[in-house]
Amino acid sequence: TVLAVDHVGIAVADLDAAIEWYASTFGLVATHTETNEEQGVREAMLSAPGDAGAAVQLLAPLRKDSAIAKFLDRSGPGIQQLAYRVADVDASCAALREKGLRLLYDEPRRGTAGSRINFVHPKDAGGVLVELVEPADGH
Ligand code: V0V
Fold it and tell me: What is the 3-state secondary structure (H, E, C) of 38-89?
């Protein structure tokens, strides 16, 4: 079961420049930044001050062979993914597999802030790369 829209992921070429642009243009503040070697990204979570709702996640590539580098080459900067928060990513993946949807990983991998993540293939989700995220603190 989906608990909430957790974040919308946006591919950018330059993370620091993008953080600055979102701050000066929309007043969004970076609440967390992190490098995820396995995913090949430097990322930042942005929110409107005081808003605990869905975040904007800026994703910049660490390497030329990363998912974000490939996305930027093909599509340019823009929305790359929509992430739903779930209580139990293993159970959610099992339920979606049961419905015939392809999950990208056999087992969840590490996401932002120690979360556990998996992705539904965009061809099985209406053209949207859907991330499922189980936060580390179980919220
Ligand atoms: C590719 N396609 C997309 C897409 N990427 N459609 C919608 N949104 C996207 N982001 C389409 C593409 O145009 C093709 O359509 C088709 O899917 C298959 O493309 P492909 O060439 O076979 O596959 P790739 O090599 O482009 O890879 C796509 C996938 C890859 C989704 C498999 O990006 C991936 O493994 N993503 C999961 C990991 C990830 O995105 N990590 C970065 C975020 P046509 O042309 O055949 O019609 S890390 C993160 O979110 C973290 C850490 C976090 O939130 O905690």
Answer: CCCEEEEEEECCCCCCCEEEEEEECCCCCHHHHHHHHHCCEEEEEEEEECCH
